[in-house]
């Protein structure tokens, strides 16, 4: 397993009755970048279940995109398999 730094963005999510976007960031352990992004989303869903709205079919549809997934090659002094998510009103429009 490798350690990956994951950055992502979501748009079109209903959170507290308002359509918002979000930014997520964190470090996860995984075998490859695709698994790292999937794991980051899965971890985020545990704390923010409303991001499961991206799994709905039909339109309009909330979306989550990876901005960057990069392997960490140096020493890391942060928690692994932990994701932070910040709701952003401007991104939801």
Would you give an account of this structure?
With 93 residues, the protein is α+β, with helices and mostly antiparallel strands. It has one domain (2-92). It contains one helix and four strands. The chain has a four-stranded antiparallel sheet with strand order 3-1-2-4. Strand 1 (2-15) and strand 2 (18-30) form a beta hairpin. The protein is elongated, with a radius of gyration of 13 Å. The N and C termini lie far apart (38 Å). 22% of the residues are buried. The mean pLDDT is 91.
Helix and strand arrangement:
Blueprint (H helix, E strand, L loop, with lengths): L1 E14 L2 E13 L2 H15 L15 E9 L10 E7 L5
Antiparallel strand pairs: 1-2, 1-3, 2-4
Q: What separation lies between the terminal Cα atoms? A: 38 Å
In what order do the strands lie side by side in the largest sheet? 3-1-2-4
User: Would you report the number of β strands?
Assistant: 4
Shape: elongated
The number of distinct helices, counting runs of at least 4 residues, comes to 1
Taking pLDDT < 50 over at least 5 consecutive residues as the criterion, the unreliable ranges are: none
Oligomer state equals single chain
Count of spatially separate domains: 1
User: What is the string of helix and strand elements?
Assistant: EEHEE
């Amino acid at each position: 397993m490798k350690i990956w730094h994951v950055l992502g963005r979501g748009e079109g999510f209903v959170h507290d009755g308002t359509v918002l976007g979000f930014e997520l960031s964190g470090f996860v352990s995984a075998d490859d970048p695709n698994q790292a992004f999937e794991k980051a989303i899965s971890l985020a869903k545990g704390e923010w279940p409303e991001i499961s709205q991206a799994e709905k079919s039909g339109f309009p549809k909330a979306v989550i995109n990876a901005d960057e997934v990069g392997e960490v090659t140096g020493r890391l002094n942060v928690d692994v398999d932990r994701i932070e998510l910040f709701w952003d009103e401007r991104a939801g429009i």
